[in-house]
# Entry
Amino acid sequence: MIKILELFGGIGAPRKALINLGINHKAIDYVEIDEKAVRAYNALYDHRYKPESVVGYNLKPDILVHGSPCQDFSRAGKRLGGNDEDKTRSSLMWETLRIIENMGVWRPKYVVWENVKGVLDRDMIHSFNKYIQGMERLGYSSSYKVLSAMDFGIPQKRERVFTVSILNGGFFDFSQLKKKPTRHIQEFLEPNVTDEQYMITVPSMLNRIPEFVTCDVNYRLLDIIDSHCWTISTRQDRCPNAGIIKMKKGKYRYLTERECWRLMGFSDKDFNEVLKEYPSKPGKRNATLYKLAGNSIVVNVLEAIFDVLLNKNSKQDLICNSNGQLEMIC
# Structure
């Protein structure tokens, strides 16, 4: 049985990936400070966790997954960085290293870290390298790769850095991940969406739709969804967002909350369970359900990683050639 610890656990994408793969596991704990995310997790997995900070935590899992807050690494954010001394939201990744160090001689075999591509940018890479050095000091060999959800069946152009660290030698070979053809976004969209709250009517958004722009502009325009969407964020009523859908008679709409959950790899059953916890108000978009989806990890990508790491039926060789070794980026 695999014991998993989820730090910054959100709505439990790692847990959902293990369930989908049929891997026998035990969630020994889940740590998340966002009260709404905790309630959603409890609704999905029938637990009774309470909001809790990762600071000072100490447990003994086989695999540790952390998707520490990305806002201060994000290209769309304020670029505050993740230095330990800065105490930004993204600097909480250092708590993961402290937690592992506090475990003493018993440490998780695998540590998986997900974050935005911005962590590899020139002005942020020092924090990424510092994390890798910290993991090496704790006895881990680390490999990383930017993975797109579109390579794993999901029609969302969401690219994230996944770092897999293995205790006591061996590098994760990302070439072993089983990729899947991208499904068309029509498979994920709800039919006949006409509810007024999803229609784009505010001038600030209408003025960013290419069809309605009549002169040269120096600001970002909205992307029109065709075969796939763009990165699902915590809000859809701003620019940039995941894209908008063109309808008949010159109308455009936002993605619905359910569509966003589907595009993060969650089922309608999952969505319905959380909808019970956070019911939508008539005629209003549900900001909580959008945020929970946007802050999650795409389940399908985690499935591919876990299938190589944990599934005994996989033909796996975690020690790859020299091309798999992570090198410092300057």
